[in-house]
Amino acid sequence: MTILLDVRDLAVDIPTEDGTVHAVQHVSFAVNEGEFFGVVGESGSGKSVMVQSIMGLVPGARTSGSVLFRDRDLLSLAPEQLRSVRGREISMIFQDPLSSLHPQYTVGWQIVEQIQAHEKVSAKAAKARAIDLLDRVRIPDAAARFDAYPHQFSGGMRQRVMIAMGLSLGPALIIADEPTTALDSTVQAQILDLLGEMRSEFGTTVLMISHDLGVLSRVADRVMVMYGGRRMELGAADAVLCGPAHPYTAGLLRSSSFNREPGTPLVPIGGRPPSLLAPPEGCAFRDRCPDAMAICGSKPPVRHYDDGTEVACWLESTPVEPDPPVLPPPSLLASPDDPIVKVDGLRLTFPQRRGEPRVVLDDISLEVRRGETLGLVGESGCGKTTLARAIAGLVAPTAGTVEFDGAPTANLDRAQWRDLRRRVQLVFQDPFGSLNPRRRVGSIIGDPFRIHRLASGAERRAKVQELMELVGLNPEHYNRFPSQFSGGQRQRIGIARALALNPELVILDEPVSALDVSIQAQVLNLLDELQRRLGLTYLFISHDLAVVRHVCDRIAVMEGGRIVELGTADEVWNDPQQPFTRRLLAAAAPEIPREPRDRILLPLTVTGTGAQQPAAGHPAAQHLADRVALEVVS
Amino acid sequence: MTRFILSRIAFGVLVLFLLSVFVFMLFYVSPSDPARIIAGDKATEELMAQIRTNLGLDRPITEQYVTFIGNLLHGDLGYSYRSSMPVSELVVSRIPVTMSLVFGGMVFWLAIGIPIGIVSAKHPGSVRDRLGQGFAIVGISFPTFVLGMLALYLLYFVPTKLGFTLFPPSGYVPFAESPLQWAWHLLLPWLTLALVVAAVYARLTRGQMLEVLGQDYIRTARAKGVDERRVTYVHAFRSAMPPLVTQLGIDIGLMLGGVIVIEQVFGLLGVGSLAVTAVAMQDRPVVIAIVLLGGVFVVVSNLVVDTTYALLDSRVRTATR
Ligand SMILES: Nc1ncnc2c1ncn2[C@@H]1O[C@H](COP(=O)(O)OP(=O)(O)OP(=O)(O)O)[C@@H](O)[C@H]1O
Ligand code: SF4
Ligand SMILES: [Mg+2]
């Protein structure tokens, strides 16, 4: 095994208005040639900043340490040398394929541009190569699609285009920053397969960031867990994910819904990540760690285990398993006789310029029972969001009726309309697009109070900060703009805004798909608690069956504008009737087996350089020395 | 796309129709005698009677409007009794002057404003950015009149006093007569106009570029290994353009209707100075012609803007076929 990318002691500081963000704090890791290296960590833990700073893509960042790639230090390369590495030797794939492709140029143009930025080839030859690449990532009819614009592609196809572009010059390393997060789970599975295939076909090494442990457990050879800008645990994927040695990794696994029995509350990691403006002296995880000890106030050592796992922690035993939180009993039991929403024969078509009108919703009849959580699953474009909007009274159906609390939602007067707007709230899907980038977060969350004239001035500010606290945002960030939050943090803003007015029905459109598991668990538990306490009803839209199964009482499966299957969560999960439902189930994240590990912690010695190694003569040290020797010769 | 353009044209025609009705009402259906307004205070009774029959002022209003609009469509804008020549001739003679001023000035204000905006946006907070911002503030806050006078003083009066003439103080030489003289005579007005307007464009460009440079696809371009110049111009500026085009269309449309202050300061006999004299002399037919002409320019430039905008945006371009 040779090392392809050797990151040593990398630190990234970003100066901002509020002070310096210490986004990455002295992280070291090595990626071996040919492996699939996974980086996991919650939102804001510095994953993106870390990989982008490796490529010099963070404007205004100050970096220190070294990033050795093929005997060059990327951090000290001249701009022109770095440019020739970017895209040719290392290419990147980003999270949101729509915003990451230029909207005004065709996809073919964008691939050709990358080829021509590095190689002197004729436009014709470059075009032929681009078409070949599009073909290899299985864009149907590649030659014709060459001239299409990104907005004419679906999300999955856009990500294929990004991958084709990334592969266009046969790079040694592909860095994929959450490449599947914005996609449907069935498409996610396809894209992961594609990445895996391309890796074997092109012999490319992959460094993939994800906040989804399920995804990583499926594809990664080795995994690094990051938290608060620091490295927590590093080792072989099965060692780290099946038998975590770090309390944080263990906490992440406990809060993953795919890993827990339905109905049992998740065990979220309480609190929120540390401020990167003033990182703590000692362990970054101390405030949230169930194993915290007095000594954790000083910088934890890096421990080596005999299976190669490295852990930055004072703990020497297996992390404890805290009990799940106790939730209040439900104040309202859902019953079939008390529907809050009644949808009958709902049909929605959009006229098209030519030919038949497009049918978006086709003869949908459905009841949402007061106090229940009804899940709505299906792939993107199947009409989930449209159905939700129709139920909220935001789009008028072509045929059929929608009743909310016994009253039809058609032809309302102004007062009734306002009332409906207050009683039914929506949480939107897209954390990037649904927030106005020019407005401060505090005023975005305060909107409902302002629109319904319920609170103003200091009172509104206090309420908003309370809500921010509730959804795990730092209330100090009241005056920040959405762009200053990481992807996951932005979604919480939307949830806070929806919860402001204590609605009756909350339509949650992919509410947690952009969140990290520890926050997902917090939000899901929070939603659960609010529901029990306030008798809320949820319509929960998601493409992630694992989450839906965990939180929903009943599940409706949608395909092509119809509801193809509707049943209790158990029925749908254990005994799917429709082939489509089975396909969805297959794409859902598998449970990660928990294996108690039988491993030896290597004792610490302090060497001259301050690096901590097992004492010489210890059997584990011998083991380690062998491994090191092996790595050097191979 | 064609549908889109056709609908915009229809809308433009509607706007012009409404404008013509408005102007007609304002000037013909007024309590005072239109013939008196048209002919002036010193006109004889015979002349007035003749005007009345010519214009059909004794006939019903709708009929009068039809005649009015019919004449307009035939290019007959009426007769200016005060200048003793047909209005159309009068106005048409002025258009080339204003057009030369506006389009020439445009070249300068774009050439000054856009690069300043781009450099500012590329290095926000730097010395260059502050200089650029300072320029914008000066340009926006100084009245055109003052800038024009200053330019005249510094570039004409001072050099002339010292014994050499850099620029002519005023006047206009048609392009066909001598392109060199044409440009030389217009250089000072161009620069003055550019100085005022460039500030707006520098600001707009800076704001747009700052926003675009923060977009994800700019990061993608850099990650691809595209060099920084290309990132700035091919990727970022391409996206920053549409609002600039809109602003440009609005400005051009408005200015073609007359650049009053600059035409006055530099003694250019363009549409703007014609408007000033016409209003001062109560020359109603000329005023009507200029108002309508301004309307036509605004409508046409809007049409051009909308079409360009649609062509520039792949999403609009591909959506409506
Ligand atoms: N351009 C920037 N200016 C200032 N702060 C930034 C900038 N980009 C990121 N940050 C901050 O740096 C920290 C790390 O952000 P980063 O985007 O690396 O997180 P992440 O681990 O990738 O999160 P996610 O999973 O949400 O993508 C966050 O606190 C974020 O607010
Ligand atoms: S060092 Fe201490 S606080 Fe940090 S993770 Fe380990 S046990 Fe918890
Ligand atoms: Mg990220």
Automatic annotation (TrEMBL), chain A:
Record-stated family: Belongs to the ABC transporter superfamily.
BP-aspect Gene Ontology terms = peptide transport; transmembrane transport
Q: Where is the ABC transporter domain?
A: 5-253, 341-585
Q: Does the keyword Nucleus apply?
A: no
Q: Which SUPFAM superfamilies match?
A: P-loop containing nucleoside triphosphate hydrolases
Q: CDD domains of this UniProt entry?
A: ABC_NikE_OppD_transporters
Query: Which keywords fit this entry according to its UniProt record?
Result: ATP-binding, Nucleotide-binding, Transport
- InterPro entries from the xrefs? AAA+_ATPase (IPR003593), ABC_transp_ATP-bind (IPR050319), ABC_transporter-like_ATP-bd (IPR003439), ABC_transporter-like_CS (IPR017871), Oligopep_ABC_C (IPR013563), P-loop_NTPase (IPR027417)
What is the organism field in this record? Agromyces cerinus subsp. cerinus
Residues spanning the membrane: none
Molecular-function GO terms, alphabetical: ATP binding; ATP hydrolysis activity
State if DNA damage is listed as a keyword: no
Q: Any idea what this protein is called? A: Peptide/nickel transport system ATP-binding protein
From TrEMBL, chain B:
For membrane topology, the record states: Multi-pass membrane protein
GO MF assignments: dipeptide transmembrane transporter activity
Question: What's in the keyword line of the UniProt record?
Answer: Cell membrane, Membrane, Transmembrane, Transmembrane helix, Transport
Quote the subcellular location field of this record.
Answer: Cell membrane
Q: Which Pfam families match?
A: BPD_transp_1, BPD_transp_1_N
Every ABC transmembrane type-1 domain range: 95-305
Which top-rank group of organisms is this from? Bacteria
CDD domains for this protein: TM_PBP2
- Would you name any one GO CC term? plasma membrane
Checking Gene3D superfamilies in the record gives: MetI-like
Q: Which residues cross the membrane?
A: 9-29, 95-119, 131-158, 182-202, 254-280, 286-312
**Protein family:** Belongs to the binding-protein-dependent transport system permease family.
What this protein is called in its record is Peptide/nickel transport system permease protein
Organism of origin = Agromyces cerinus subsp. cerinus
